[in-house]
Amino acid sequence: MRAYLDCGGNLIDTSANYTDGLSELLVGEVLRDYSREKIIVVTKGGYIQGQNMELARKNNFPEVVHYGEGIWHCIHPEFLQTQIQRSLERMKLNRIDVYLLHNPEYFLTEIQHHGTPSHSDHEEFYRRLRAAFGFLEAQVDRDIITWYGVSSNNYGLSESDPTMTSVARCLEVARSLKRDHHFGLVQLPMNLFESGPVLEKNNHGKTVLEFCSKENLGILVNRPLNAFTGSRMVRLADFVKRGEAACTPETLSSILKPLREHEQRLGVELQAPLAAGNGIAALMEGLVPQLQSSAHWEQVAGSHVLRPLQSWLQSSQQRYSHDMRWQAWVEDLLRIINPMFEEISRYLSAREQTTSDSLRAGLSRAGYPETSESLSRMAINVLVNLPGLSCVLNGMRRPEYVEDAMGVPALTPVDGIRILQDFSQLKLPL
């Protein structure tokens, strides 16, 4: 975050439910070292998870949507009051520049679990939005927030979709409250595959992009590089640097070889049973080929590898702690397994490069000029050249991600609308 701010970044987007409040705490820690007036802070509320679940169970807030196990949702003013106060405290702020209702369409999608949302369901949805907007207007009057809006994943859907969220209806709700309302912007996902906000005419015959431009509403785009297509998520980025070799069937075996030999040594020296029956190396040899990506590996490594390993180490420690060979073996294991986990992540990333190469070729066929820039820069460049777009929100968890993303404004402009139109017609082998 500091690297981003130091090279000119001026907008931070977070939410109360990102890492259960820790994201806002991090924002507060960093912001104290920067000029507050130069940075726009956007945060959101609506999700009931983690700490908020405990809060909701104690307070019994009205109009809670019980979406699923461990995940509820609420935009009632009583709940929003607690969320804004907690966000201010975590970020050490007196005022929030932009406050967004976070995915209020959960009301409609929860109903869809049991049947198709009706006309009356949609009327109730916008009634709840009106109550929330009224509360947020009062927060503006108190100088607690400056602008408000809605972050919705469903703005780009077809009008025929029963869970579609309408920007036009949201604006009508705000205008019904005050002529000089402060409903100023929307946030939505958009990328090469999810281009509905640019292509779907679902707001009085206009696309979201066209409607917001006409009404002077800001548009914040999220998930520019994490695209959902069909039943999978595609990462719009390169995973292997140009000139590096892609992985082969023998690559995984080579990565696991040091661990496999180390586990065999344990059996020879101590005649000890291996973890997970046949050893962690054998476990990963069966597990890793089933994984789709490095992100998938991060999701399953803890429960499927680390926890069984830790459990085995604890039980074995009780049995072999008196043997110096055991202690030395464990120390060597830790030296082997940490870099091996990194190698597994790189191995899975390299497997994804085939998809990335296909996407780059698709962009070229859709009219993107020939370039040596990274796929991630190309994908973001398409978006930043869309007329009326205010900001593309890109997760930048590492300094190299910051460097990559912040180089986009220097790229040659492209015809974003035409590229998205042509790209949407392609049949890509993914």
Q: Can you give a write-up of this model?
A:
- The protein has 430 residues and is of the alpha/beta class.
- Among the domains are: 2-189, NADP-dependent oxidoreductase domain (TIM Barrel), CATH 3.20.20.100; 249-354.
- It contains 16 helices and 14 strands.
- The chain has helices spanning 2-6, 22-31, 51-59, 77-91, 106-112, 119-141, 167-177, 196-199, 208-215, 249-270, 280-287, 294-320, 324-365, 375-384, 399-405, 416-423, and strands spanning 11-13, 40-45, 47-48, 65-68, 71-73, 96-102, 145-151, 183-189, 201-203, 206-207, 218-222, 226-229, 232-235, 391-392.
- The strands form four sheets. The protein has a seven-stranded parallel β-sheet, covered by helices on one side. Strands 3-5-4 form a three-stranded antiparallel β-sheet. It has a two-stranded antiparallel ribbon with strand order 9-10.
- The two termini are 33 Å apart.
Q: Mind sketching the topology for me?
A:
Elements: H1 2-6, E1 11-13, H2 22-31, E2 40-45, E3 47-48, H3 51-59, E4 65-68, E5 71-73, H4 77-91, E6 96-102, H5 106-112, H6 119-141, E7 145-151, H7 167-177, E8 183-189, H8 196-199, E9 201-203, E10 206-207, H9 208-215, E11 218-222, E12 226-229, E13 232-235, H10 249-270, H11 280-287, H12 294-320, H13 324-365, H14 375-384, E14 391-392, H15 399-405, H16 416-423
What is shown here, in short?
This protein has helices at 2-6, 22-31, 51-59, 77-91, 106-112, 119-141, 167-177, 196-199, 208-215, 249-270, 280-287, 294-320, 324-365, 375-384, 399-405, 416-423, and strands at 11-13, 40-45, 47-48, 65-68, 71-73, 96-102, 145-151, 183-189, 201-203, 206-207, 218-222, 226-229, 232-235, 391-392. By secondary structure, the protein is α/β, with parallel strands linked by helices.
